[in-house]
Amino acid sequence: MNSSGFKAFWAVLTVLAVIVAFWYAACVPMNIKGVLTEQERAGAEVQPPSAKDRRDMSELGLVLNNSFAIPATWEQDRPRLPAPHQVAIEMWETTVLKKITSKRSLIYHGWVTLSATVLGFAIGTGLGILLAVGIVHSRVMDMSVMPWAIVSQTIPIIALAPMIIVVLYSVGIQGIIPKAVISAYLSFFPVVVGMVKGLRSPDAMQLDLLRTYNASRSQGFWKLRLPASMPYLFTSLKIGIAASLVGAIVGELPTGAVAGLGARLLAGSYYGQTVQIWSALFAAAILAACLVGSLGLIERTVLKRMGIAQ
Q1: DSSP track, 92-161
Q2: Which one, 43, 60, 161, 282, has least CB within 10 Å?
Q3: What is the arithmetic mean of pLDDT over 99-115?
């Protein structure tokens, strides 16, 4: 590892340590009331906050007057804010210690969500590229389709998702398809915008050179516009895959799904299992990072073979 990589590693590690320390500190005022209630029921003597503390920051007053209870704020079964190690233990138990076919395995639920994500992303990417090609080559589509594509993104997905699911269910389409449609809805717009920008990136001199060679429109597309659009396309794909994952999770919420990361979030909220909720959130974040990282590897490989510097 060179010096720049070593410095970057320590910078990331330092930021991570600060976040973890802040997280542990935030658990204390968030969970102190529940801890003191439990200990008071067990017979412990609890000191209430002073009148000023009660008026300004009651949780801080409880912490200052009952510092003996601080360690317990990191060990509650159902805390308001789980501690980092609680989330880590839950993720370890639901990934490594559970069979991947178990309904309590995060890998099982992650695979269900990933399936809808990939299908929706493929649909959204294909639709986005086709629309971008049409927008670049047709002024009519540019003036008509592009404004509607922009307007479509102003509708909150949390409001649109139940409508999509109800309509598709009414015509007998169930399972992975409704979630994939929601994923495609969120992922196609970044692809459209990025691809349009990329296809229009060649300058006038390059286009004039093709006209000098008497190149056809299709030759100009395959030889110039498409290769020039690749960096823009991969950038938009990274945004689109993350948006597609969000769409798949959101699509699981209104259906009352029993599988998927969205289902884990629902089950945790129903039963007050905040540790389960946070572990599902971290699983979704890790899955998104893996998807974006995979696209990054593909991007470097493709652009290197095309001779485009990175």
Answers
A1: HHHHTSS-TTSTT-HHHHHHHHHHHHHHHHHHHHHHHHHHHHHHHH-HHHHHHHHHHHHHHTTS-HHHHH
A2: 43
A3: 88
Distance CA 274, CA 277 (A): 5
Rounded Cα distance between 310 and 294, Å, is 16
Q: CA torsion sign, 238 to 239 to 242 to 248?
A: negative
Tell me how far apart the alpha carbons of residues 32 and 136 are, in angstroms, rounded to a whole number.
59
Here the contacts of 262-268 (C-beta below 8 Å, separation 24 or greater) are 262/113, 263/109, 263/112, 264/106, 264/109
- Quick check: 183 and 120 in contact, CB under 8 A? yes
> Which tokens in the block code for residue 148?
């509607």
Q: What are phi and psi of 298, to 5 degrees?
A: -65, -40
Under a CB-based contact definition with an 8 Å cutoff, are residues 278 and 82 in contact? Answer: yes
pLDDT in tens, 224-235: 888 888 999 999
- Cβ-count burial of 134 within 10 angstroms (0-12 exposed, 13-18 middle, 19+ buried)? middle
> Does pTM surpass 0.90?
no
